[in-house]
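Possible regression after last week's pipeline update?

I re-ran a chain I had predicted before the update to compare outputs. Posting the input and the new output here so someone can diff against the archived version. Not blocking, just want to make sure nothing changed silently.
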Amino acid sequence: MVLAYLGRAVGYAELLRLLRISPFGAPAANIRLLTSLNLDVVYSKTDLAGLETMLQQGHPVIVFMRTGELPAGRTAPAMPCWLSATMKASCT
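New output (post-update):
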């Protein structure tokens, strides 16, 4: 979606190749491989305040979440999260 936002049409198969996606996924750091499309890619850790700042500056953001410690399967409780119009995170 970020590529579309930037006006860059990249086919799904090409994206899989560029990001070196395997049947088990890919490391989040592979997002840096998009620099081969002449894009500026910043891969870094931040907190909610940093995310808020990036969004307020108009930067498209991809958020990677570590899910290894989350319960898996159908018994896992739903934890919907969103950003409101005021850019404050809310999770229930």
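Follow-up from reviewer: compared with the archived run. Helices lie at 2-5, 12-18, 48-56. Marking as no regression found.
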